[in-house]
Write a structure and sequence with these properties.
- This protein is an alpha+beta fold.
- Strand 8 and strand 9 (204-209) form a beta hairpin.
- The protein folds into 3 domains: 5-59, no CATH class; 63-140, GMP Synthetase, Chain A, domain 3; 144-209, 2-Layer Sandwich (Ribosomal Protein S8, Chain: A, domain 1).
- It contains 6 helices and 9 strands.
- Helices cover 39% and strands 26% of the residues.
- A 3-stranded antiparallel β-sheet has the order 1-3-2.
- The longest helix has 23 residues, at 142-164.
- Residues 144-211 form the R3H domain.
Length: 216
C-alpha cells in the first residue's frame, strides 16, 4: 500500500487516533490507513495503569485516486459524451482507464491528446506527494491497439537496418511507445540495439547494429 504522508498519533482508542489524523490531514476516513506501534490497555479501576495506543497513521492511495477523479471530472465537463473513469493503484503506479462514447476527441491525432492529458495528471499528482508516482492512462483500449501498431513499425524498421546497415531514426514517440520499440527489438533482433535521444516531448528511438555508434 502506498504511503503518501505519515505521522504517529497517541490516543486512548484507535478511533480517537484516526479522528485526530482525519482532522490534521484533512482527509476522508477511506483515505487513511494505520499500523499499531503500541497496543493500548484500559488499566484497572479509574483507569489506573492504562496505556494509550500509539499508531502510525498515513494517507493512502485512495486520496490520490479521489483527487484524480475530481481532476478528471472537471476536464471531462468540456466533453458532451458520457465517459466513465476506472482508477486503480498498483504500488507507485496509478492506472486510469476511460471508456464511453466519442472517445476520439480525448485520444487526438496519433494519441497526442491522450499523451498530453496523461502528462497533466502526472504533474498534478506529483505535486501532492514526495513519492514519484507513475501514471498510465488508457482510453478505449487505445494503448493496446497502438502497441500492435508500434510493434509493426519496429519490425519494419529493424529489417531495414539489417538490409541497409544504416542507423534508423524513428519519429517522435511517447514513453510507452519508445518502451515498446526497445522491448520488441531486444526480444526479436538481438543483433540490433536501440537508444532514445532528444528531450521530452520530442524524444525518438534510434535503431542501430550492435557494433555501430549513433552520431547525429
Amino acid at each position: 500500500m502506498l504511503k503518501l504522508q505519515s505521522k504517529e498519533f497517541t490516543a486512548k482508542t484507535i478511533e480517537e487516533a484516526l479522528e485526530q489524523a482525519k482532522k490534521e490531514f484533512e482527509v476522508q476516513d477511506s483515505e487513511l490507513s494505520y499500523k499499531i506501534k503500541e497496543e493500548g490497555t484500559k488499566g484497572f479501576i479509574f483507569g489506573i495503569g492504562s496505556k494509550p495506543y500509539i499508531l502510525e497513521i498515513y494517507i493512502n492511495e485512495n486520496f490520490l485516486i479521489n483527487k484524480i477523479r475530481e481532476f478528471l471530472d472537471e476536464i471531462l465537463t468540456y466533453f458532451d459524451e458520457e465517459i466513465d473513469a476506472n482508477i486503480k493503484a498498483f504500488g507507485k503506479t496509478i492506472v486510469i482507464y476511460l471508456d464511453g462514447e466519442g472517445l476520439g476527441k480525448l485520444i487526438g491525432k496519433h494519441g497526442r491528446t491522450l499523451g498530453a492529458l496523461q502528462h497533466l495528471i502526472m504533474i498534478y499528482v506529483n505535486r501532492m506527494t514526495d513519492t514519484k508516482i507513475d501514471i498510465k492512462l488508457d482510453i478505449g483500449e487505445y494503448r493496446k491497439k497502438r502497441r500492435r501498431k508500434i510493434e509493426e513499425i519496429a519490425e519494419q524498421a529493424a529489417k531495414k537496418v539489417l538490409r541497409t546497415h544504416e542507423n534508423l531514426e524513428l519519429a517522435t514517440m511517447f514513453s510507452f511507445e519508445r518502451k515498446t520499440v526497445h522491448e520488441h527489438i531486444r526480444k526479436y533482433f538481438p543483433e540490433l540495439s536501440t537508444k532514445s535521444v532528444g528531450l521530452e516531448p520530442y524524444r525518438k528511438v534510434i535503431i542501430l547494429e550492435n557494433h555501430k555508434e549513433y552520431t547525429k
